[in-house]
Specification:
The chain is an alpha/beta fold. The chain has 9 helices and 12 strands. The strands form 3 sheets. It has a 6-stranded mixed sheet, with helices on both faces. A hairpin with a 2-residue loop joins strand 4 and strand 5. Helix 4 packs antiparallel against helix 5. Bound molecules: adenosine-5'-diphosphate and magnesium ion.
């Protein structure tokens, strides 16, 4: 299964420039794609466009070669799991019930969950290590636990692709890394994942491909070690960023301290303070 944006331009009324300007990118089964870029670079707009929630003024989004508008919502919901950036639980449910909501597009005509539905919910709870929370009320969860419930709910639908908009934001570093480990395992099992993140080092560790957005355009799209270079990131984020190599040879990105008073924010010449 392959979801692709081709030359998509999209924007908002009164926007000075389009939020997305001829953006092409794709994710397919068994592939881990990270979308990165500064605040306002168009990441969430791209997420919405890929789901058919944001109209493209030019270009197309296609799922397996068919325009996204040509799919019914339940058909899409069986194939694509999506975690928007923000969502508060509307009303408290037990964790297992909240995860079971993910099955809605797979329930039969009577709408009653059967054995296959229960099994899928159990698998999703196990995959996200939520067993001990299964009977807890969702309004008693920490931010990180609630985030895992949302991932489990998406997995319960047994999608072929999973799109996540900044899923690690509310998580401490261990929970964020274990979320990436979980996604990597799911990708090994054939799921296609497209995750928006500001965690560039996680992208270096886990992504097969990184799409770097800058002011609505694709600045680079390729393997993480080719896209996430100190030079390109310093230009795109307008901040001095260095690339270190750890003892085991793994690259690691480090934002430096900017030389005091050196540059206006929009300059592309960004000297770093050599002492820090
Ligand atoms: P990101 O997720 O990368 O931070 P967004 O896709 O949310 O960026 O936003 C891209 C651009 O579109 C920004 O300039 C933002 O201000 C603008 N934008 C986003 N949503 C709206 C909206 N609902 N109305 C008007 N402008 C918007
Ligand atoms: Mg966003």
């Amino acid at each position: 299964m392959r979801l692709a944006a081709r030359e998509v331009t999209a924007g908002y009324p009164r926007g000075e420039r389009p939020a997305l300007d001829r953006v092409s990118c794709a994710v397919e089964s068994g592939e881990f794609v990270v979308v990165a870029g500064p605040n306002g670079s168009g990441k969430t707009t791209l997420f919405r466009a890929l789901l058919g929630l944001q109209a493209a003024t030019t270009g197309v989004v296609e799922l397996d070669g068919r325009a996204i508008d040509g799919w019914t919502r339940p058909d899409l919901a069986r194939r694509i799991g999506a975690l928007p950036q923000r969502e508060e639980p509307a009303f408290p449910l037990r964790v297992r019930e909240a995860v079971a909501l993910g099955r809605w597009a797979r329930l039969g005509p009577i709408g009653r969950p059967g054995a296959a539905d229960e099994a899928a919910v159990t698998r999703a709870i196990a995959a996200t290590a939520l067993e001990e929370f299964a009977t807890r009320s969702t309004d008693t969860l920490s931010g990180g636990e609630w985030q895992r419930v949302r991932v489990a709910r998406a997995l319960a639908a047994e999608p072929e692709l999973l799109l996540l908009d900044e899923p690690g934001t509310a998580l401490d570093l261990a929970h964020e890394m274990s979320l990436y480990e979980l996604l990597a395992r799911l990708v090994d099992d054939g799921l296609g994942v497209l995750a928006i993140t500001h965690h560039l080092n996680a992208a270096l560790r886990y992504a097969d491909r990184v799409v770097l957005l800058d002011r609505g355009r694709v600045a680079a799209d390729g393997p993480p070690r080719e896209v996430l270079t100190a030079e390109l990131l310093t230009t795109v984020f307008r901040w001095p960023i260095a690339l270190e190599v750890l003892g085991d040879g793994a690259p690691h990105l480090v934002p430096r301290r900017r030389l005091a008073g050196a540059v206006p924010p929009d300059s592309v010449q960004i000297p770093e303070d050599p002492a820090r």
